[in-house]
Each structure stands twice: as structure tokens, then as C-alpha cells.
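Renewal narrative, Specific Aim 1. Our central claim is that a sequence can be written position by position from structural information alone. The example that follows is taken directly from our test logs and has not been curated for this report. It begins with the C-alpha cells describing the chain, in the order in which they were read.
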């Protein structure tokens, strides 16, 4: 697959932005089964669609999930992450009441911390060299 095959366009821009997002369960409790992860992916895809973003990859284990999300410049990554966190926690606890027994003091599924890292494109050194070579006589 070509590294630029995912280029998207907006009204006034062309972009290729991705973030790797990781959510960890509160207290790192091992609570998810395959059924939970399947439903979690559906919920995450629904939230992403509402933000006009694309969930490219989803996977997880019994105590955390990984997402690869393509998002446009108009979307603040922090708002997307907060929405993914809140909506998925609320819906999973509603649909799977058995998850609540792991969180008797807290009504939250996820840890208060998450990871969101942007990625893609060439390394900084290649960009720096490209920019330095601009406007030089050929």
C-alpha cells in the first residue's frame, strides 16, 4: 500500500493525519472479553463517525485498547479522545453491568490517563533537510 493512499481533502486543505490512542482500564483490571472488545470497536467507530474521523485500526486485550484514528485538521485531538473515553465508558457500563463489579468506588471504566500520539510522514531530519534545500539554486 502506498504511504499516501489515505490522503483526504477538505474545503481548503489536503491532509494525512493519524493518531495512535491507547485507553487503559481503571486499576488495570482485566475485564474485557472478545464480546466486550467487539462491542467497544462498534462504539468507537460510531464516535469517530460523529467527529468525521476514521477509525483505521482497533485492537485490544483484557485491560486496554489501541486505536489508529485518521482525523482532519479541524478536529482537536483532545476533544476526540475525551469523547471516545466518555462515550465508550458510559455505553459499556450500561450494556455490560457486570463490568461495574470491578469499579465499586469509581463509576469510570478507563484510567484517568490515556495515550495519544500523532504519527506519520517522514522523520524530522528528512523534513529539516528538505526545508533547508528550498530556495537554493539548482
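The sequence written for that structure reads:
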Amino acid at each position: 500500500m502506498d504511504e499516501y493512499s489515505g490522503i483526504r481533502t477538505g474545503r481548503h486543505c489536503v491532509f494525512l493525519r493519524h493518531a495512535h490512542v491507547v485507553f487503559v482500564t481503571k486499576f488495570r483490571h482485566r475485564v474485557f472479553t472478545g464480546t466486550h472488545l467487539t462491542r467497544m470497536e462498534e462504539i468507537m467507530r460510531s464516535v469517530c463517525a460523529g467527529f468525521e474521523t476514521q477509525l483505521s485500526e482497533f485492537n485490544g486485550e483484557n485491560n486496554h485498547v489501541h486505536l489508529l484514528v485518521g482525523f482532519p485538521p479541524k478536529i482537536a485531538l483532545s476533544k476526540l479522545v475525551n469523547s471516545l473515553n466518555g462515550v465508550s465508558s458510559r455505553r459499556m457500563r450500561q450494556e455490560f453491568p457486570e463490568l461495574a463489579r470491578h469499579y465499586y468506588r469509581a463509576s469510570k471504566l478507563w484510567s484517568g490517563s490515556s495515550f495519544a500520539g500523532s504519527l506519520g510522514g517522514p522523520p524530522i531530519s528528512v523534513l529539516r533537510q528538505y526545508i533547508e534545500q528550498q530556495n537554493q539554486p539548482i
